[in-house]
Write a structure and sequence with these properties.
The longest helix has 23 residues. Helices cover 30% and strands 27% of the residues. The strands form five sheets. Strands 2, 5, 6, 7, 10 and 11 form a six-stranded antiparallel beta sheet that branches. The protein has a four-stranded antiparallel beta sheet with strand order 1-3-4-8, with no helix packed on it. A three-stranded mixed beta sheet has the order 15-16-17. Helix 2 packs antiparallel against helix 3 and helix 6 packs antiparallel against helix 7. The chain folds into two domains: 180 residues, no CATH class; 80 residues, no CATH class. The protein starts with 20 loop residues before the first helix and ends in an 8-residue tail after the last helix. The chain is an alpha+beta fold and 339 residues long.
Length: 339
């Protein structure tokens, strides 16, 4: 069945909702806070002047209830109702100060990023410390909020926020909100932090089953003089970060032993260099996605591989750090990033 494209007269565009007064007010408040605080580098300790506080929806309803109780007590001259009203108001007053105090003195420090593939969220890790226990702290970035958690006495809290990604390159976390509604949920205390962090976004690998690298890549890679052959078991060694899972001695680990890796002598595969110029396709993004697929597959097989992007060459290697280095080169290729 043929699909008839829309003519210009039939073209439909999603209506763009103009920003409302709440959005404009929020942006003005955020801009004012940024000018007041400036950019934040490294660990940031939340001071009293950085904390803002407002009642929540529950707090507004609580205040209306107290006002109605006050009117009823005054109208009927009921001293017991007035005592209860002022007692509940005093509890709300204490809760407001405790909510504000729950943020003051908390130190927020960056704790690394997790580079995703395009389309997956990027993670920005943070470590929160304090000199006394804190409760119900959460971090918010855009529409994402971390789970509420507390800081134990003389301890720390490791948490993260996520930022959506659409394409390869770099994604920034320009603004972070730290907030709490402790203890009763009647008030929200928050602060803005502007860490100016960025995470690398790898190109999303092409679907599995795409055409593999051309034979020229493998033939040109056999420059170390080693011939193809069967691998011979050479022994076990301690596991190191980046070792492929297929090399781990899982049976020995299941019997309660240490996590060790099998070593072999002789290489069953010669090192391979993936050259972007030899990747089929005219669209640069599609070629980078296919190259990313070759890198991911080669790492899963335990091959030694490298890449060539014009004048930039990454020597052959293996392991998770090497895979991430190759993918990071693809992520920033021709985008003005480091090459």
């Amino acid at each position: 069945m043929a699909v008839v494209p829309d003519t210009p007269s039939r073209a439909r565009t999603a209506p763009v909702r103009p920003p409302g007064w709440r959005d404009r007010l929020n942006e003005r408040a955020i801009g004012w806070a940024r000018r007041r605080h400036g950019d934040d580098t490294g660990a940031v300790t939340i001071t009293r002047r950085r904390v803002y506080i407002l009642p929540t929806g529950l707090g507004v309803a609580y205040a209306l209830m107290l006002f109605a109780m006050l009117l009823g007590g005054l109208n009927y001259g009921n001293n017991l109702a007035l005592v209860l009203t002022f007692l509940l108001a005093g509890g709300a007053w204490v809760a407001m100060h405790e909510c504000h105090r729950n943020l003051v003195g908390v130190t927020v420090a960056p704790a690394g990023t997790r580079a995703p593939f395009a389309g997956d969220p990027a993670e920005f890790g943070f470590r929160l410390t304090a000199d006394r226990p804190r409760h119900d702290l959460l971090l918010r970035a855009g529409d994402y909020a971390s789970p509420a958690a507390g800081i134990p006495a003389d301890g720390d809290l490791a948490t993260h926020v996520q930022v959506p990604t659409e394409r390869r390159g770099r994604v920034k976390l320009a603004r972070l909100r730290v907030e709490s509604t402790f203890p009763l949920g009647l008030f929200t205390a928050w602060t803005w932090i502007h860490p100016e962090l960025a995470a690398v976004v790898y190109p999303r690998p092409a679907p599995r089953g795409v055409e593999g690298p051309p034979p020229a890549a493998e033939a040109g890679a056999a420059q170390d003089g080693r011939a193809r052959g069967e691998e011979d078991f050479d022994g076990l060694r301690e596991f190191r970060e980046g070792d492929p899972p297929r090399r781990i001695a899982w049976k020995a680990y299941a019997r309660g032993g240490a996590l060790v890796v099998k070593e072999y002598v002789g290489s069953a595969r010669t090192p391979v260099t993936f050259d972007l110029d030899t990747v089929p396709g005219r669209d640069l993004e599609a070629r980078l996605q296919r190259l990313a697929r070759w890198i991911v597959d080669a790492e899963e097989r335990g091959d030694r591989y490298g890449i060539r992007l014009g004048s930039v060459v990454v020597p052959a290697g293996s392991g998770l750090p090497h895979r991430n280095q190759c993918l990071a080169r693809l992520a920033t290729y021709r985008l003005g990033g480091p090459t």
